[in-house]
Every structure is written in structure tokens, then in C-alpha cells.
Amino acid sequence: MMAFTQPSKRGQWVEEKVLGSGGFGQVVLWKNEETGNFVALKKCRVQSEMTQKHRERWTLEVDIMQRLNHRNVVAAKDVPPVLNVGVGELPLLAMEYCSGGDLRRVLNKPENCVGLREFDIRCLVKDVASAVEYLHSKRIIHRDLKPENIVLQMQEEQIVYKLIDLGYAKELDQGSVCTSFVGTLQYLAPELFASQKYTCTVDYWSFGTVVFECITGFRPFIPQVPPVTWHREVCKKSLDDITAFYNAEGVVKFSKKLITPTHLCRSMQAYFEQWLRYMLKWDPKARGGGLSEGRPQCFKILDTMLSIKIVHILYVANNQLLSYPLLDNYSLQALQQNIEKETGIKFRDQDILLASGASPDPNLGAQQCWNPPGEEDWVVFLFVKGENQGGGSQRNKPLPPNVQNIVKDSKTVLPYNEQKRAWAEAVYFCSQQVVDFRRLIQSQRAAMLSLLRTNSSFLKMKNSMVSICDHLLSKMVYFKECLQHDLEMYEIQKSNGVHNAEKVVAKWMRVGEEIEVHRNLKEKVAKLDQHSIALQTKIIELQKSPFARAKQNEVLEELEKKAVALYHDLRQAGKGGREIYKDHTPMVQIVVKCLITRDKSLQDLYTHLGKICACKHELFQLLPSIQQCSKQITDATGKLLQSHKERQSDIWNLVQMAAQNGISRQDSKGSNSASSWGVSSLESMKVCDDNRETVKKVDGMIRSLMEEQDENMSMMDWSFLPPLKNNSS
Ligand code: ATP
Ligand code: MG
After folding, report:
1. Who contacts 18 (Cβ-Cβ below 8 Å, separation ≥6)?
2. CATH class of domain segment(s) 9-95
3. Is 717 a catalytic residue?
4. Which of 17, 27, 50, 108 has most ligand 1 atoms within 8 Å of CB, for mutation?
């Protein structure tokens, strides 16, 4: 197809390359050297051999294209005058150039051998549906929808799919019978094939067929059989069958479900199965589901299913991806109840973590666990509280059946199509291991971040406990010293004649002994502190693990690449009718290596995950002891201060009694003689002053202790805390 001559040049326009070539047309890319603009020019290659009918058809395509204006239909442009044809020749069709190539090229990529990724399928289906609905609204039927006639264009950093080639399009008003079809038959609706009357539902069949192929990597109904056999067999399908294939005995089997594996999550898979049942109905009248409020049902369903928010949850222990559609105001509780129903993990034992390691807020809906579909594979993680996560027996996924067969018997040569399918599933298996591993690494990251979050709250509590315990101990020392001082003072006052205070003093001494019991809190705190230091060491060790920095498993990625390359070679050779691999040995070797690497890597990763979860569990188990101990310290401090105050009050009472005694004596005798307490009122005033001083001191000391405690909290090092990642929910 490539021209080996010098590239043509006309004015500022240079011929770049041939984009494609079909029955009559050839599409050539031209570039304007001045402006850098491109134009794709479709011209008729075989004008002389064309019948009048074909000439009309050609002119009609150009005519229709120029009247259309839709984001998902390739835009017609004005033909640059220097490139235009002469009078009498068939007109050229100038189009915007879509640099992403056509969908066939995408489907041919070996990594897409079992279908496209979910995100790409969503975009494609939305765009093509929009284009088809638009054409039908303009009373135009495309009639030749197939991967070759869907091109890709990058627009605002997004791939936009566009329909081209309206060469077989018909305007409905021009009559409804077609007898002149010369296109690819594989995507044609059965009634077109049989030259029956047809309507716009022929495009539904082709669209459904294309989407099925994008999901699975192959066409739905016994591909590769000649049209007559195809028609004879497929017409037997029941209403809801969406695929037909030959079983091992060579008998045609039908199914209402998609053949796995696919890259769709299970919710999306179920929606697409339902939708394909509408699109692939044999009966043209029933196809598409008829009209609902003036709009074809199939487009309505598609809009609804693409707008449903689906939460993806990785059940870590089982390495299993769960998905739940969020229907109206779905609460977090409802989501968790569904998880409980499905996995058997009790609501209270579920530890759901967002990618940031944060737990979802129970007051917000389940929506916070949802991320808009995108290139990135966004999931939340389900752990089981307090459990070692490695227990799941299903965590090592089995080989797909066709791959199992070639692994068991790598020497038996299979027919090319079967070999291609088995190898495609082998490629899928290898890439699935890469995806799974990457997800598990993400789950590890979330678990680690959650551990650090828990640890930071834990440390805050633990440090506060240590600090209030230190304060309690210094308060006790102070209390003791004051008590000692008061007792000594009492002894002096006693020799001065103070009496009647024995009872009070005995109480002081009893309290003094009682507070000794608080000393055991020191030991308790020390034990908890030690335990927590040991835990900190473990956490630091976990952060040093290679998994903490890993993003993927390079060995698995390498094996995936090799599998893709092998499959590519097989396809290339197959196209040329050559045979390069006599048996499955090279592919089986890769699959087995992948299996061994996967098993070993998962073993290590789950051990590491288990340690993280065990640490978090240990933190949670230690927390109540710390809370309890802190409460005991606070209570003890309260009691101590209370006892101190009581003693102060006792002294004040004594002073008051002494003062009253002194005054009454003074009043009755009019003299300054000593009271029965042996204290003059002057002296008692001094005692009052002393005590006031002491109370002030105690207050000041308590205040400074409090301040010191606050300062301790704010000086704590929080740098180990991970920066909070915003989870767009
Ligand atoms: P016909 O079936 O009418 O003879 P055809 O199949 O040869 O036409 P098209 O389908 O229009 O012609 O184009 C052929 C191929 O050229 C496409 O499959 C696609 O790969 C490429 N192509 C066509 N138009 C464009 C475009 N605007 N931008 C990029 N590639 C294009
Ligand atoms: Mg074409």
C-alpha cells in the first residue's frame, strides 16, 4: 500500500501516507507545510470501472458527510483547491484527520487479545451510541458499522471515537431494500445479508457485534464460518442468546452470557450482557427494545448503565475484586451489609480502607468509596479486623481452562484458532497477575497508612498518659513535703499549747499513707510504655520493607511483556499462513514462570500484610489499657489535690478557731494574753499569711505543671504522619 515514489506535493500540501484503502476508495493523509494542518482525503481509486449505481453511492457519501455535524462523526472539511479534482470526476471527501488510527488496529494489539479495558469500552460505547443515535435522528442508516469504520482522535487529552465511511449509508427515504452490498459481512445484520427489508435496527446488530468483540476479543456468533453456514446456525439462537460457539464435539452451543475472561468488573459485565441481549436479537423489530417515550430503549438503557456509580472493593484476604452498584443514596451501612451477605465477614469485623488509609466516615454515604471511572484502577480495600490477612484459599487465582489444557499437554498441536485463543488467555493470565499484584501493593500501602494513622492517635494518648503520670508523681512528692512540713509545724504548735487537733492530724497521716498506693501507677505506665516502644520498633521495621516502596513486581511485568510478544509473533505468522510455533512450549514456559513468581511474591506480600495488620491489632488491644490507666491517673490526681485542699481547709479551720478564741478572750479580758491555742491574734494572722502563701504556691505550681503538659503535647513530633491524601469523593 505504501508508495515508494517521491511523496507528491501540490502547492503547500505534501502527501504524508495512505491511511487506508477499501473497495473503491483510498484515504490519503496530506499535510500543509506552512500551517502544519492535516487533511484526510478520500478519493475514488477505480472510477473507470464503476457502475452508475456506484458513482451515485459515492457522490451520496460525500453529500451526506458534508451535511453532518457531530462530535462522534468524522467532520467533513473543504477540499483544499490545489488538491481538488477536475470537472466531471467523482468528488473528493476531505475529512479531519483522526491520528489514533481505527478500532481494528486497537483490537489487533496483542495486549487486547481478550478485549479492551473497562474504561476504554465505556468511552467507546458512549461515543458510538451517540453517533448512531444522531445518524438515525437524521434518518440515516450507516449499514457498515465495524471496527475499521471507527477511528480514534485525541481531543482534550481524551480519546474520542468517531464514525467514518458512510459509503453504504442510506437515507431512509430513498427506499429500504438493499441488493448491492459489497462490504465485510461479519458485522452485517442477518436481514441485510438475506436482502430482506431492513430499518435502522441493522445498525444495532452491527454495533452490538462490535461491542461484544471489544469486550471479549472475538465476534459473538461462530466467527470464521462461511455466510451460509453462519445464517443456518445462528438463526437457531433463542431471543436472549448473545453468543454461539462450537463445543469440543463440534456442536454449536449458545449462551446468554459473555464468555470470560474479560476486563469488565462483574457489575458492568452483567449490565452489558443485558444490553447485548437487546442489540443482538435476530428479529429486527424486537432488536433495540423498541421505543420508550419516543427514544429507542437500547440508548436509554445504555445511558442509565453508564451513569451508575460502581464501587470496587478488593477483598484483600481472598485477592478478590467485589463490585457494588450504588443505587440512590446508598448508605455505607447498606454497602457493608451487602459485603457481609456476600463474604460472611460480619459488619463489625470489616475494616474498610480508602486508598489514603483513612476509614470511610460512617455518617457519609457509600459514595465516598466511589471514584469516577478513569485510566487508573481505583479501589477501596476490605480487611478483616484483627485477623491475619493471608488466610484466603482463593488468593492464588487458577489458570483459565484453555491455558490449563496447554500446560498439561504442551506438545499437542491445536487448530490455529484454538491455539490463538489459548495463548490469548495465557496473555490475559499473565497480565491479570500484574494487575492483581499492583492492587495488592496498593492495599499494603493503605494498610500501612492506616497503621500510621492509628499509631499517631495511639502515641498521642500514650504520651499524654506518661506525662500526666509524671505530674502525678511530682505532685505526690510535693504533697508529702507539705504534709511533712504541716506535721512538723503541728509538733511545734503543740509544744506551744495547741491541742484538740489530734483527730485531724491522724486523718492527715492516714491520707499520707493512702496516697502511696498511687505509686503502682508508675509501674503500670512503665510497662505500657515499654510495650509501645517495642511496637514502634516493629512499625519502623515494617516501613523499611521493600513492599513499602514497591509499585509493581518487575519480574511479573517482564513475563507479561514476553507473553504479549509471543502472542504477537503467533498472530503475525498466522496472518501469513506460516507456522512458527510447532507446539505451546514457549508460552507454557512463560505461564509456569509467572505462576511460580506469583505464588512466591504473594506469599511474601501476604506475610508482610499480616504483620501490618497484626501491629494494628496490637495497637487496638493496647489502647483500652492506656485509656484505663490514664483515667486512673486523672482520678488519683484529683483525689490528691482534694486531700491537699482538705488539709489546707483543716489548717484554716484550726486558725479560725484559734483566732476566734483569741478575740473572745481579748473581748472578755480586754487584754492581749495568749489564747487557749497558745496563739496570739497577731501570730494567728501570720499563720494565715503563711497559709495564703502556700495556697498561692500550690496554685502556681499546678498551673505551671498544666502548661508544661500542654507544651509537651504540642512539641511532639508528628512528622512520621503521612500527608493526608485527598480522596475525591
Ligand atoms: P469504502 O468502503 O467506501 O470503499 P473504505 O473502507 O476504503 O471505503 P474508509 O473506511 O472511509 O474507506 O477508510 C479506510 C480506512 O482509512 C479506515 O479504515 C481508516 O483506517 C482510515 N481512515 C479513513 N478516514 C480517516 C480519517 N479521517 N482519519 C484517519 N484515518 C482514516
Ligand atoms: Mg471502511
Report:
1. 1, 2, 3, 26, 27, 28, 29
2. alpha beta
3. no
4. 27
